[in-house]
Amino acid sequence: MSSTQCTKKIALVDCNSFYVSCERLFNPKIRKKPVVVLSNNDGCIISRSNEAKALGIKMGEPYFKGKDIIIKNNVQVFSSNYSLYGDISRRVMRTLKRFNSDIEVYSIDEAFLDLSNFTDQEVEKVGKEIRATVLQWTGIPTSIGIAKTKTLSKVANHIAKKTQSGVASLIGIENIDPILEKVEINDVWGVGKQLTKFYQKNGIYNAKQLKNKSNTWIKKSSNVLSSRTAMELRGIPCINLETTTSKRKSCVVSRSFGKRVEKFQELREAVANYCLNASEKIRSESLVAKAITVFVRTSPFQRNFGYYSNSKTLDFPIATNNSIETVKAAMSILDSIFRNGYRYQKAGVMLTGLSNEEGKKNLFSTDKDEKINSLMRSIDNTNYRYGRSTLSLASAGVQKRWNMRRQYSSKIDTADFYCLPTIRA
DNA sequence: TCTGGGGTCCTAGGACCC
DNA sequence: TCTGGGGTCCTAGGACCC
Questions:
Q1: What is the second-level CATH architecture of the domain A10-170?
Q2: Between the CA of A64 and the C1' of B1, what is the distance in angstroms?
Q3: Which nucleotide lies at the shortest CA–C1' distance from A345?
Q4: Which nucleotide is closest, CA of A252 to its C1'?
Q5: Cross-strand partners of A21
Q6: Å from A425 (CA) to B9 (C1')?
Q7: pLDDT in tens, A74-108
Q8: What are the backbone angles phi and psi of residue A313, rounded to the nearest 5°?
Q9: Of the residues A2, A125, A151, A322, which has the maximum number of CB atoms within 10 A of its CB?
Q10: Does domain A250-396 have CATH number 3.40.50.720?
Q11: pLDDT tens profile A343-387
Q12: What CATH code is assigned to A174-245?
C-alpha cells in the first residue's frame, strides 16, 4: 500500500479575524481600515484586523489600555454581536460541508476536515478551492493548513496565515524538522502559559525540541495530554476528528456587570436572569441538570475595595430544567454566599451533570411535573416569537441597571429585513 | 472609571467499601 | 497493644482551548 493511501490528511480551516470580517461584510467602508471588536461589556479587544495588529494592538488587551492608539489611528471599534457572528459561522460551516460532510466544527471560526480521500498531490489544490468557495459564498476570508494530524494542521495553519495563497500543506514533505524548529513552543496547540514555562525551564523552546523529547519523560513530568501533543508533532494521529456533536455536559451563563453592583436586590435580579437563560438553553437541547452552582465575585483587578469571591453548589433531588426550580435554588444559594459591603463585578450560574430529558421521569414524577413542563414550553415559545424576556419571572426584575455595556454595537441583525444592505446600481 | 464568556479534560486527594 | 491494602467514585482546582 502506498503511503498516500494510509496516511491521514487533516485540514484546519480558520476564518481570518473572524468577528472583524463579519462586521466588514455589512460595512464596506471599513474593509481596508484598522478595525477591532470588543468582548462583552466592551471590556477587552478580542478580534483585530491585520491593520490593527500592525499598529501593535494586542489580543485580549483591555480596551481602555489600547484606547490611545485606537483614537490616534482612527481605529474602528465594535461591540461584539454574537447573533451575527453565529449566523455567519453557520453559513461558513454549511459551505465546508459540501467538501466533506464529516467535519468537526471546532469553534465559531474553525473547523477540521478530513481530506484523506485525496492524493498527496491533489490536497493543496483542494485547499485552495475550499478557500475560494468560502470566500465567494460567504465573503469570509480563511486560512487553511493541511497535515497528517490535527496538531500539525495547526502548525500548517500558522504558516498559511502568512502566505499569499492562504493555504499551506505539510503533506508529502519528507522532513518537517526545519519547519517545526521555527515554531515557538508557546505557539504549539495544547501548550499554554504554564507548560511553556515548564518546557523552557527544561530547555525546550520550539516544536522540534518537544517532538524529540521522549514520551516517558513527557508523561512522567506532565501528563498524557502533553505526550499526545508530542506524538502528533511526530505525525502520529492521537486526537481524533469529532464529527458527531456530542451532548454538552454543562451550561454556564455569566456576565460582568455594566456597573458595579452593591445591592442584594440587584444581584438577585441578575442571577435570576442568568438562571432563566441557562434553563431555557438546556430545555432547547432537551437536557436536564443534576446540580446548580452560583458564583459571585468582586473585581480581581481592583482589590482596594476588598476582594470577595464565593460559590456554592446545590444538588437537585430530581434532575430538572424547570426555571422555577432552578431560580429558587439559585436564590437560596445567593442568600448564603452574599456578603454586604462589596462592589460586585460579576456573577454566574452553572448547570452541571446534564443528561437527556427522557431519563428524567421516575417514580416520583407527577401530574404537576407535566403541567410545569407545558408551562415552560409555552414560555419558551412565546419568548421565541415575541422576543426574549417577554415572559419572565418576577424575581428577574425589569430595570436591569446591571446590564452590560455595548456602546459600539453595529446593530446588524441578519434576521431583520431592515438591516439588509442596500445595493445601488 | 474601564480587564469576556463558555467549554473540556486531567489529576490529586478524600470518602467509602470490603 | 497492635491498626492493611486495594479498589471505586466523587469533587475541587488547574490547565488548556477558542
A1: 2-Layer Sandwich (3.30)
A2: 10
A3: B3
A4: B6
A5: none
A6: 54
A7: 999 999 999 999 999 999 999 999 999 889 999 99
A8: -115, 140
A9: A151
A10: no
A11: 999 999 999 999 998 765 555 567 777 788 888 888 778 777 766
A12: 1.10.150.20
